Amino acid sequence: MAGKPVCHNGHDTEPAAQDQPGAWVRAYGRLPLPADLNWLWTIGAILCAILALMLLSGLTLTLAYTPDAGLAFGSVEGIERRMPAGWLLRAMHMTGASFFMLALYIHLLRGLYYRSYQPPRRAVWLSGCGLLVMVMVTAFAGYVLPWGQMSYWGADVAGKAVGALPLVGGWLEGVFLGGDAPGTPTLHRMFALHFGLAFLIVAMVAGHIAHVHARGSSSPSARPVEVTGALPFHPYFTVRDMLAIVLVAITFVGVLCFWPELIAEPANYRPANPLHTPADIEPEWYFLPFYGMMQAVPFKLGGLLLSGGAVAVLFAVPWLDRRAGAACGAPALVRVFAVAVLICSAVAAACAGLHHMQGYWLLVARLGMVGYYAYFLAYLPLSGRLQRGGAA
Ligand code: HEM
């Protein structure tokens, strides 16, 4: 029957304009999502929650921090000892950084495993890669701020690595350090970078999420939503996201209160001393795979290119994987094995990064690097053939 629906008393049943759901409710609350999304799809919400925590704790810490080589370490000690609940804020910011990076890596691996980078979500993937780089730079700049031994020598190693670039290396090193060696100008730069990038990340996350909502979520089965069935974002996924955030919050408090030394680096509780190089200079755990790859090559430029390339290759993933459509071509066992090799390779390079790069550890780092690159440069392009072979 054509025409507007009419109820038995003859009144028009179509909602009046003021009863129509707003754009926000339509775009988010009622957004239809594949019914078979699993718990890995809660990581995005967890990332947003930790990002909010990082911004709030970071902004509060800024009130008492001084970016000056002579004062920075003391100002951080002041936060720990004299600022009300300063120790808690700093611990939350430091532990939050590790939780954020862990969640980010799981989010990325989920995208790789389920091939969420396939059209029409290429732009989502690319904005995610952009976010990864921005978060890494922010985390690095933040680690320099307390001006402990690792902060100082980390900045020194990074400055020298940048300096190894041909042609522009020397100039870039000068821009990065603001002088011949790390000092107050370096701290000003790192502080500005850390503070400014945090807001750019928020803007970029907003774009990233808007893109996901515009393009629709992929799903574990990679089947279209007409086959999997759809459920509205609220209440089905909001409730699960909130439960996941609560569980992560409980774990977070557990680590913060009962296992604080899990994340803190003892050497960074000693003030920066330009005259004393620590026996082992090592970055935070989340940079270790890239640090291991950088050390595994005997000449600086090669190490820099290969460790930078390990992040850069992620941008090319949608084009390296030539399998058509979102349906997963390679059998599940092959995909699990490939991602397991990728993770083990990254862990091997990270473990090697913790040791003096010689003998056995040099071999481990190189094997780790080969395994890591093999996923992107051999497995992804070849899996298209696996699919075609399987389909034939
Ligand atoms: C600040 C960091 C990030 C935040 C806050 C964030 C947040 C989110 C959120 C809320 C979603 C929707 C829910 C979900 O699918 O989990 C999402 C989806 C997605 N993200 Fe991220 N993300 C971040 C970084 C990344 C990175 C580094 C990548 C990969 C390089 C990435 C790739 C994706 C992809 C491909 C999707 C769509 C997944 C699908 O098809 O359903 N994101 N992200």
TrEMBL record:
Native organism: Acetobacter lambici
CDD domains in UniProt: Cytochrome_b_N
Every Cytochrome b/b6 N-terminal region profile domain range: 1-221
Bilayer topology annotation: Multi-pass membrane protein
Keyword list, A-Z: Electron transport, Heme, Iron, Membrane, Metal-binding, Respiratory chain, Transmembrane, Transmembrane helix, Transport
PROSITE patterns documented for this protein: CYTB_CTER, CYTB_NTER
Every Cytochrome b/b6 C-terminal region profile domain range: 223-392
Localization per Swiss-Prot or TrEMBL: Membrane
Pfam families (alphabetical): Cytochrom_B_C, Cytochrome_B
Free-text comment on the cofactor: Binds 2 heme groups non-covalently.
Family: Belongs to the cytochrome b family.
Record function comment: Component of the ubiquinol-cytochrome c reductase complex (complex III or cytochrome b-c1 complex), which is a respiratory chain that generates an electrochemical potential coupled to ATP synthesis.
Subunit composition and interactions: The main subunits of complex b-c1 are: cytochrome b, cytochrome c1 and the Rieske protein.
Principal location: membrane
Protein name: Cytochrome b
Coiled-coil regions listed: none
Needed co-factor(s): heme b
Transmembrane segments: 39-66, 87-108, 123-145, 157-179, 191-210, 242-263, 301-320, 332-355, 361-380
